[in-house]
Write a structure and sequence with these properties.
Layout: E1 3-5, H1 8-16, E2 23-27, E3 41-46, H2 54-66, E4 72-74, H3 76-82, E5 86-89, H4 100-110, E6 115-118, H5 124-137, H6 141-162, E7 169-176, E8 179-181, E9 183-184, H7 186-192, E10 196-198, E11 201-202, H8 211-215, E12 221-224, H9 231-241, E13 249-253, H10 255-258, H11 266-277, E14 290-292
Parallel strand pairs: 1-2, 1-5, 2-3, 5-6, 7-10, 7-12, 9-11, 12-13
Antiparallel strand pairs: 3-4, 7-8, 13-14
Helix pairs in contact: 5-6, 6-11
């Protein structure tokens, strides 16, 4: 089966299921594992935002969306040349990836017969469910079942380790300029890690907020997890967050690795957050993924 992934998280799922050799097309953002673009055709491009500030990125996104323009470009010629059997995409967020209807229209125009599967989880349980969907559609359902069981076992181990602990109040900052509070599956990660997510929208889209509203939630811990930034970028942004939360711990997290991509590594995120909230109860996060800044 020839697979095309139009989502970094779907690419991670494909590799976690041992199907990397069947993946022929990816996006310019697919960077995990490191081999994800080796020998693959990049079929989706977009603006290189490296060097842009969070405010500049936010303004660019809002300007494009207000004008009815897409943030991503489907390279139709490249897609046609791959003759895919299955395309993995999404309708969850126009800021995150190309919507599935764009893909379906392009495939019809090109005369491609590929199936299109849209992965649109809003909760942690639904994220794990997408692994089963991909497994079923690619003929490796037993492999997917085994992977999901392993992930559930890890979540249960964290739950057992933190069950008797005090649950700190945790604010999740997904973007800093303007501030966005955590949404979708992100509050679930905090809950699973033994915290109480405050100012968050579990199972719902992230929304713009204010520092006054976030600080009024009186968090004990603030997690800064900007999408599209690895740890260095998160640390830089977390330093700007510190003045808004006097007395709280402020941590920077590699959002792409642990929090914002709805794939298997979200369980790594739960384990990392549990180590932040309840040090000593679970192993510390692997180096290069989290850093305390205040």
């Amino acid at each position: 089966m020839r697979l095309v992934s139009l989502l970094p998280s779907a690419t991670e799922i494909v590799y976690a299921l041992g199907l990397g050799d069947q993946l022929v097309g990816v996006t310019f953002e697919c960077d995990e594992p490191a081999s994800a673009r080796t020998g693959k055709v990049v079929v989706v491009g977009g603006k290189d935002t490296r060097g842009m500030s969070p405010a500049d990125i936010d303004a660019y996104v809002k300007r494009r969306l207000a004008a009815g323009e897409d943030l991503y470009t489907l390279r139709e010629g490249a897609l046609a040349g791959l003759e895919p059997d299955l395309v993995l995409t999404q309708d969850l967020c126009r800021v995150c990836a190309l919507p599935s209807d764009h893909v379906e229209d392009a495939l019809e125009l090109l005369g491609c017969r590929a199936d299109v599967v849209s992965l649109d989880p809003y909760t942690l349980d639904e994220v794990l469910g997408t692994i089963l969907v991909v497994g079923a559609r690619t003929g490796v359902r037993e492999r997917a079942d085994r992977l999901v069981r392993e992930l559930h076992n890890r979540l249960e181990a964290v739950g057992a380790a933190v069950r008797a602990q005090h649950r700190p109040r945790v604010a999740i900052v997904e973007w800093v300029d303007p501030p966005f509070a955590g949404g979708h599956w992100v509050p679930d990660l905090v809950t699973a890690a033994g915290g109480e997510a405050v100012g968050a929208r579990a199972g719902k889209r992230s929304v713009e907020t204010t520092w006054e509203e976030l600080s009024a939630t009186e968090p004990d811990v603030v997690l800064v997890t900007p999408c599209g930034f690895h740890l260095d970028g998160a640390v830089e942004q977390a330093q700007r967050v510190v003045p808004h939360f006097p007395g709280a711990q402020v941590w920077a997290i590699d959002g792409d690795a642990l929090v914002v991509r709805p794939g298997p590594r979200l369980v790594d995120g739960v384990e990392a957050i549990a180590a932040i909230l309840h040090p000593g109860t679970v192993p510390a996060a692997r180096p290069g993924t989290v850093q305390r800044v205040a």
